[in-house]
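User: quick one, sequence for these tokens?
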């Protein structure tokens, strides 16, 4: 599994943190890029201080102590000349978690002003899987139109709306539900929440 993962400035750092934590325990490699807004929001929501993608990974490792199997490559959010800015490089899928409405709008319009937007544009044009996890409520019509257009372009929209049939006991359980749904869409086995048995 070779992924591109972007954290794009919305509230909902728990979804990114729990997905990255679980990803650390899976075989493969990920190209990780994080917006400045995501660094700020992650710091605020976890009441910590992170100033880089590396700091986010270190925070996750210290907080949950996952097995370290996965390999991460950090890419600068502002570097639109990065390797993942070109379709000549190959990855299986891209996940934007959480995804701001600004990033949704930019991806929908084909704007590529930063590496998340450019890598998403490449992912769509190369017909690879793009999973977008918007965290906003309520949606206005502009949001809905942009999300629909992204879906029509081939993206998968996975709203950060956790289910409750798994009987969550903690906030981490809610984060794990969304992380597990991302893994399901990637075709990767997950045990973050039980399957509904009826």
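Assistant:
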């Amino acid at each position: 599994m070779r992924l591109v993962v972007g954290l794009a400035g919305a509230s909902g750092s728990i979804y990114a943190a729990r997905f990255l934590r679980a990803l650390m325990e899976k075989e493969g490699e990920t190209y990780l890029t994080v917006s400045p807004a995501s660094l700020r929001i992650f710091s605020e929501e976890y009441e910590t201080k992170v100033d880089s993608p590396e700091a986010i990974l270190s925070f996750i490792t210290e907080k949950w102590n996952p097995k370290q199997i996965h390999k991460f490559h950090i890419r600068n959010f502002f570097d639109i000349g990065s390797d993942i800015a070109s379709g000549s490089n190959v990855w299986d899928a891209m996940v934007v978690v959480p995804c701001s409405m600004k990033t949704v709008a930019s991806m929908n319009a084909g704007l590529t002003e930063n590496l998340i937007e450019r890598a998403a544009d490449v992912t769509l044009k190369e017909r690879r899987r793009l999973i977008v996890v918007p965290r906003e409520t309520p949606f206005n019509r502009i949001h809905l139109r942009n999300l629909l257009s992204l879906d029509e372009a081939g993206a998968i929209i996975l709203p950060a709306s956790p289910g409750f049939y798994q009987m969550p006991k903690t906030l981490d359980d809610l984060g794990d539900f969304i992380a597990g749904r991302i893994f399901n869409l990637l075709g990767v086995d997950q045990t973050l929440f039980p399957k509904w048995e009826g």
